[in-house]
Specification:
By secondary structure, this protein is α/β, with parallel strands linked by helices. The protein has one domain (2-277): Alpha/Beta hydrolase fold, catalytic domain (Rossmann fold, 3-Layer(aba) Sandwich). Helices cover 44% and strands 17% of the residues. An eight-stranded mixed sheet has the order 1-2-4-3-5-6-7-8, with helices on both faces. β1 and β2 (11-17) form a beta hairpin. α4 (142-168) crosses α5 (180-192) and α4 (142-168) crosses α6. Pfam families: Abhydrolase_1 (PF00561). Keywords: Hydrolase. This is Alpha/beta hydrolase.
Length: 278
């Protein structure tokens, strides 16, 4: 574990586990969480002999709670700072939700041009664009995201209980096996971060058009999405992303929720392993 300071002076926290000569897998977390959200995957792949790396996004987790730079360009540049600091090559980049957008921007802008990326994975990811526009009628109305901002500003602590207890993990579905520990861990991760970073991050994950990022990616890319994702609906995300990627594979999980990397880690981990080793 350690910190790297970016070009604009921001301290980014990262974890770096496993053999330094092994193929690296870099994990990118979702909003408003931290690298801890990848515990189940990092331990699994560590056990398979990989080098596993994950950082906390600026304003999130243990990274600096800076005032500025809460946008996809800075997110990707921060990842690049970690990757260059560790000199990671032949890396697999895996991103969940907002982290999927971060992966797309990083791979397109830094990773592929620098020759550092072998493969990419987008898990329940936000690209190409979440918000509804004339060109993206399948997206969610801006009022949805305004509602998220209002709830966060009014009572972030309660909001960060309601999201995981409800739609994030599908715990609001009939027959769901609810885990109080998972809910409280989501809350813990969220409350570690900055309210300002989280507030401004909503615009970043909902209004950033990543069509050109996806088109620019040429490495093999796996798109994984649950068809009962209540946070990032599959019709405006995975179904569109797969049409834009040059070398993409789509895997849809019937009934799986947005947070499937946690609720169905046993399934997701094996599919990730098969893709990475394939």
């Amino acid at each position: 574990m350690g910190y790297v300071t970016t070009k604009d002076g921001v301290e980014i926290f990262f974890k770096d586990w496993g053999p330094k000569d092994a193929q690296p897998i870099v994990f990118h977390h979702g909003w408003p969480l931290s690298s801890d959200d990848w515990d189940a995957q990092m331990l699994f792949f560590l056990g398979k002999g990989f080098r596993v790396v994950a950082s906390d996004r600026r304003g999130h987790g243990r990274s600096a709670q800076v005032s500025e730079g809460h946008d996809m360009d800075h997110y990707a540049a921060d990842v690049s700072a970690v990757v260059e600091h560790l000199d990671l090559k032949n890396a697999v980049h895996i991103g969940h939700s907002t982290g999927g957008g971060q992966v797309a921007r990083y791979v397109a802008k830094f990773g592929e041009p620098q020759g550092r990326v072998a493969k990419a994975v987008l898990v329940s990811a936000v690209p190409p664009l979440m918000v509804k526009t004339e060109a993206n009628p399948e997206g969610l109305a801006l009022e949805v995201f305004d509602g998220l901002r209002a709830a966060l500003a009014a009572n972030r602590a309660q909001f960060f209980l309601d999201v995981p207890a409800g739609p994030f993990y599908g715990f609001n579905r009939e027959g769901a096996q609810v885990s109080q520990g998972v809910i409280e861990n989501w809350w813990r991760q969220g409350m570690m971060g900055s309210a300002k970073a989280h507030y401004e991050g909503i615009k970043a994950f909902s209004e950033t058009d990543q069509t050109e990022d996806l088109k620019a990616i040429s490495v093999p890319t796996l798109v994984m999405h649950g068809d009962d994702d209540q946070i990032v609906p599959i019709v405006a995300s995975a179904h569109k992303s797969i049409k834009l990627l040059q070398n993409g594979t789509l895997k849809v999980y019937p009934g799986f929720p947005h947070g499937m990397l946690t609720t169905h880690a046993d399934v997701i981990n094996l599919d990730l392993l098969a893709f990475i080793e394939g």
